[in-house]
Protein backbone atom coordinates (compact mmCIF):
# COMPACT_ATOMS: atom_id res chain seq x y z
CA UNK A 1 0.00 0.00 0.00
CA UNK A 2 1.08 3.58 -0.55
CA UNK A 3 1.97 5.82 2.41
CA UNK A 4 2.38 9.58 2.30
CA UNK A 5 3.42 11.60 5.35
CA UNK A 6 2.89 15.31 4.81
CA UNK A 7 3.48 18.35 7.04
CA UNK A 8 2.49 21.94 6.26
CA UNK A 9 6.06 22.50 5.04
CA UNK A 10 6.96 19.40 3.03
CA UNK A 11 6.39 15.78 2.12
CA UNK A 12 8.34 13.74 4.68
CA UNK A 13 7.80 10.27 3.17
CA UNK A 14 6.15 8.79 0.11
CA UNK A 15 6.41 5.13 -0.81
CA UNK A 16 5.15 1.57 -0.58
CA UNK A 17 4.85 -0.11 2.83
CA UNK A 18 3.25 -3.30 4.13
CA UNK A 19 2.21 -2.12 7.62
CA UNK A 20 1.78 1.26 9.34
CA UNK A 21 1.49 1.68 13.12
CA UNK A 22 0.02 5.01 14.18
CA UNK A 23 -0.28 6.86 17.51
CA UNK A 24 -4.06 7.43 17.67
CA UNK A 25 -5.48 9.84 20.22
CA UNK A 26 -7.12 6.85 22.00
CA UNK A 27 -4.17 4.46 21.59
CA UNK A 28 -1.99 3.10 18.82
CA UNK A 29 -3.39 1.09 15.91
CA UNK A 30 -2.17 -0.60 12.74
CA UNK A 31 -3.15 -0.31 9.11
CA UNK A 32 -2.59 -3.32 6.85
CA UNK A 33 -3.30 -3.90 3.16
CA UNK A 34 -7.04 -3.81 2.26
CA UNK A 35 -7.97 -1.99 5.48
CA UNK A 36 -11.48 -0.51 5.54
CA UNK A 37 -11.67 3.22 4.81
CA UNK A 38 -11.02 5.27 7.93
CA UNK A 39 -10.33 8.82 9.07
CA UNK A 40 -8.80 9.24 12.54
CA UNK A 41 -7.04 11.84 14.64
CA UNK A 42 -3.47 11.21 15.74
CA UNK A 43 -1.69 12.12 18.94
CA UNK A 44 1.94 12.83 19.61
CA UNK A 45 4.03 9.68 19.27
CA UNK A 46 5.88 7.29 17.00
CA UNK A 47 4.60 6.38 13.55
CA UNK A 48 6.19 3.16 12.28
CA UNK A 49 6.16 2.27 8.59
CA UNK A 50 7.67 -1.18 8.12
CA UNK A 51 10.99 -0.63 9.97
CA UNK A 52 11.18 3.16 9.63
CA UNK A 53 10.20 5.37 12.56
CA UNK A 54 8.89 8.94 12.52
CA UNK A 55 7.98 10.96 15.61
CA UNK A 56 4.92 13.08 14.90
CA UNK A 57 3.29 15.86 16.89
CA UNK A 58 -0.34 14.96 16.18
CA UNK A 59 -2.40 15.13 13.01
CA UNK A 60 -4.94 13.19 10.96
CA UNK A 61 -4.81 9.96 8.94
CA UNK A 62 -7.04 8.96 6.03
CA UNK A 63 -7.06 5.43 4.56
CA UNK A 64 -8.84 4.73 1.25
CA UNK A 65 -8.14 2.02 -1.35
CA UNK A 66 -4.72 1.03 0.06
CA UNK A 67 -3.60 4.68 0.19
CA UNK A 68 -2.63 5.98 3.62
CA UNK A 69 -2.35 9.76 3.91
CA UNK A 70 -0.94 11.19 7.14
CA UNK A 71 -1.30 14.94 7.63
CA UNK A 72 1.06 15.59 10.52
CA UNK A 73 1.34 18.87 12.39
CA UNK A 74 5.10 18.32 12.61
CA UNK A 75 7.64 15.51 12.28
CA UNK A 76 10.17 15.83 15.08
TrEMBL record:
Q: Tell me how this protein sits in the membrane.
A: Peripheral membrane protein
Answer yes or no on keyword Membrane: yes
Protein's recorded name: ATP synthase F1 subunit epsilon
What's the subunit arrangement here?
A: F-type ATPases have 2 components, CF(1) - the catalytic core - and CF(0) - the membrane proton channel. CF(1) has five subunits: alpha(3), beta(3), gamma(1), delta(1), epsilon(1). CF(0) has three main subunits: a, b and c.
- InterPro entries of this UniProt entry? ATP_synth_F1_dsu/esu, ATP_synth_F1_dsu/esu_N, ATPsynth_dsu/esu_N
According to the entry, every stretch annotated as the ATP synthase F1 complex delta/epsilon subunit N-terminal domain falls at 1-74
What UniProt keywords are attached to this protein's entry? Answer: ATP synthesis, CF(1), Ion transport, Membrane, Transport
* Localization annotation: Endomembrane system
Question: PANTHER family this protein is in?
Answer: ATP SYNTHASE DELTA/EPSILON CHAIN (PTHR13822), ATP SYNTHASE EPSILON CHAIN, CHLOROPLASTIC (PTHR13822:SF10)
As for what it does, the entry says: Produces ATP from ADP in the presence of a proton gradient across the membrane.
Asked whether the UniProt record includes Translocase among its keywords, one would answer: no
Q: Which family does it belong to?
A: Belongs to the ATPase epsilon chain family.
Amino acid sequence: MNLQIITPDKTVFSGEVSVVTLPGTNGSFQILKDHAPIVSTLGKGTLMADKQEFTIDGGVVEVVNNKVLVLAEAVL
